[in-house]
Design a protein that fits this description.
The complex is a heterodimer. Helices cover 48% and strands 14% of the residues of chain A. By secondary structure, chain A is of the alpha/beta class. Chain A has a single domain, classed as TIM Barrel, CATH 3.20.20. Chain B folds into 2 domains: 150 residues, Rossmann fold; 218 residues, Rossmann fold, CATH 3.40.50.1100. A 6-stranded mixed beta sheet of chain B has the order 3-4-14-9-10-13, with helices on both faces. In chain B, α14 crosses α15. The interface between A and B is large, with 42 and 36 residues. The complex binds pyridoxal-5'-phosphate. The site of pyridoxal-5'-phosphate has 21 residues of chain B, from α5, α11 and α15.
């Protein structure tokens, strides 16, 4: 069974997920980072594969992506690294990145290799649901891979329903109309939007991401959805500490989580 | 007006809207609105008045006698360089600003490479009293300083982009990111036939006035309304799209695009997307682009900032794939020579971009009776520094 599916059956709230850019700071940081986050009790991970032109990302993910590309990280290398880590990695892994690198690999080869590397699901922000439905849906079903779609405060009710029916795993609620890495406090409009999503009784759990960087934003998201996805705030900690164990400690501190969960 | 795209915004295999969900609402709003608005009598009237009285259209179709003698064909220049602000870019911005007003947009953002689109956008924003922000790569800010000054004088805010390759590609990324962060009330006024649907079609329609006028002018001058050849330079492809538009289904007319080879298509320092690119996705559009085997988009290189883009509009990817149009790669050096040649033969200093189209004349086998139209997309004032440098080398 898909490990992400199993996770959401077991755990319904206060989930915590981390995004990191594979290949940053070093080409072979991937497994060290995964191990440290697993030990800290993070529920699941988005493993980002770098792209030269990440349209939906702010400066931090742009910079880590650029460094990762310089370090020689690419999809093939990443999937090899994940495959060789084997059963030591028990938490669910999601691949996240832009469509162009995937198209150069070929969608079918990508799905096959992702499955072989133990991947549970995929997030491709620039693959529209309509194109997925027309061209790739069967492929993802065949490989038991979740396709996770984004919704934003601008997404209409009808479109959210459509996305809920088409995607699986979870729905990625983008907390505000923004690129990644904003540092503002959440507004009442943002909270209202998360509450609206909650009241829709969607079939998929809702994970909220973008701009979660402190205790306050985390608690708001935990109260109003199934869990939080943190990217930039983690990468900032990693940039500051230059050590993956120190980085997760610093992040937990900032989020007001006293002890590593589950430990 | 001929319909070139299907209902999903594709030209054959190319086009579409490959955008993150954060852009969906804005892009869908535009896609729903644009075609209807462009067809209304009110818009048509406002647009043609603005083109006539403000842009200075129709632009002349000039018979280039000495260049014809040199080339061995009957060469006409479509004088887009005489448009207000010095290039064809004004046609597009005049249309989009009217569209943005009808959609009640309060802020205008744009990307620019050579600065011609930035200047054109800043110009119509001043005219319409709308705040304007232009994103421009750091490298282009340095090499197109006069245009930066013009934008500032016109009241635009120029944001220097330091991410990635610091040229047009990254200026476009930043403009799109800004739109994601400021979705309401903002119109992204894109400068070429690139980006997600509906932009390529929107910009092509607004530029199609070029071929509409060519038809009328040729009828008067040659007693037939079609040429044997149409030549235009291709960066994102908007001046070429406008030049080709009304002739795309007319098989009597050979369509030739000139893309920037930079130092040469085999040197890695090139912007010749058709010659060296492969299918993929750039700025929300499925088209041909320059990329490495990992799918990372590579930096473009061209002496002309306006052609320095690693992608190409989906219309041109399609015309290339179907064989309807031919695309020639012109090096920096060839373009430079063609610019000097035109200047001395006809007393017209062309933009470096347009010089690529002129250089293509040397690569084609014409009959003496062939009627050839070169779209002179812009004037060379902004390129004087490059021209002076090349003259210093020659001496
Ligand atoms: C004079 C001129 N011609 C051509 C271009 C290239 O754009 P396009 O291919 O969209 O016509 C530019 C772009 O800045 C330009 O300034």
């Amino acid at each position: 069974m898909n490990t992400l599916t199993r996770l959401f059956e077991k755990k319904k709230q206060n989930l915590l997920s981390i995004y990191f850019t594979a290949g940053y700071p070093e080409t072979d940081s991937t497994i060290k980072i995964i191990n440290s986050l697993q030990a800290a009790g993070i529920d699941f991970l988005e493993v980002g594969f770098p792209f030269s032109d990440p349209l939906a990302d702010g400066p931090v993910i742009q910079q880590t992506s650029q460094q990762a590309i310089k370090n020689g990280m690419n999809l093939e290398l990443l999937l090899d690294q994940l495959k060789s880590a084997g059963s030591s990695v028990t938490l669910p892994l999601i691949l996240m990145g832009y469509l162009n690198p995937v198209l150069q690999t070929g969608m079918e080869a990508f799905c096959r290799k992702a499955k072989e590397s133990g991947i549970s699901g995929v997030i491709l922000p620039d693959l529209p649901p309509e194109e997925y439905e027309a061209d790739y849906k069967e492929l993802f079903k065949m490989h038991d891979l979740h396709m996770i779609f984004l919704v934003t405060p601008e997404t209409s009710q009808a479109r959210i329903r459509k996305i809920d029916a088409l995607g699986s795993g979870f729905i990625y609620a983008v907390s505000s109309s923004s690129t990644t890495g904003r540092q503002d406090t959440f507004t009442s409009a943002q909270t209202g939007y998360l509450k609206r999503l909650q009241s829709m009784n969607l079939q998929n759990p809702v994970m909220t991401g973008f701009g979660i960087h402190n205790r306050n934003t985390l608690q708001t998201v935990w109260e109003n959805s199934s869990g939080a996805i943190i990217g930039t705030a983690y990468l900032n900690a990693l940039i500051k500490c230059r050590d993956e164990k120190q980085a997760i400690k610093l992040l937990m501190d900032r989020l007001g989580i006293e002890k590593p969960m589950n430990l | 007006m001929p319909q070139l795209i299907n209902s999903k915004g594709f030209y054959g295999d190319f086009g579409g809207a490959w955008i993150p969900e954060m852009l969906h609402a804005n892009i869908e709003e535009l896609a729903r609105a644009y075609a209807g608005i462009l067809e209304t009598d009110g818009f048509k009237k406002d647009f043609s008045n603005l083109l006539r009285d403000y842009a200075g259209r129709p632009t002349p179709l000039f018979y280039a006698r000495r260049l014809s003698g040199h080339t061995g064909a009957k060469i006409y220049l479509k004088r887009e360089d005489l448009c207000h602000t010095g290039s064809h870019k004004l046609n597009n911005v005049a249309g989009q600003i009217l569209l943005a007003r009808r959609m009640n947009k309060k802020h205008i953002i744009a990307e620019t490479g050579a600065g011609q689109h930035g200047v054109a956008t800043a110009t119509v924003c001043a005219l319409m009293d709308l705040p304007c922000t232009v994103f421009m790569g750091e490298k282009d800010v340095a090499r197109q300083e006069p245009n930066v000054m013009r934008m500032k004088m016109l009241g635009a805010k120029v944001i220097t982009v330091t991410s990635g390759t610091r040229t047009l590609k990254d200026a476009t990324n930043e403009a799109i990111r800004h739109w994601i962060n400021n979705p309401s009330d903002t119109h992204y006024l894109i400068g070429s036939t690139i980006g997600p649907h509906p932009y390529p079609d929107l910009v092509a329609r607004l530029q199609s006035v070029i071929s509409e006028e060519i038809k009328q002018q040729l009828r008067q001058k040659e007693n037939r309304d079609f040429p044997d050849y149409l030549l235009a330079c291709v960066g994102g492809g908007s001046n070429a799209a406008g030049t080709f538009y009304h002739y795309i289904d007319d098989a009597r007319v050979k369509l030739v695009g000139a893309e920037a080879a930079g130092e040469g298509t085999g040197t890695g320092k090139t912007a010749a997307t058709i010659a060296t690119g492969s299918p993929g996705i750039i700025h929300g559009c499925r088209t041909l682009l320059m990329q490495d085997s990992d799918g990372q988009i590579t930096g473009a290189h061209s002496i002309s900032a306006g052609l320095d883009y690693p992608g190409i509009g989906p219309l041109h990817a399609h015309l290339h794939k179907t064989g309807r149009a031919t695309y020639l790669a012109i090096t920096d050096k060839e373009a430079m020579q063609a610019a000097h040649l035109l200047t001395r033969l006809e007393g017209i200093i062309p933009a470096l971009e347009s010089a690529h189209a002129l250089a293509a004349l040397e690569k084609l086998d014409f009959k003496n009776s062939d009627i050839v139209i070169v779209n002179l997309s812009g004037r060379g004032d902004k390129d004087m520094e490059s021209y002076m440098e090349s003259m210093a080398h020659r001496e």
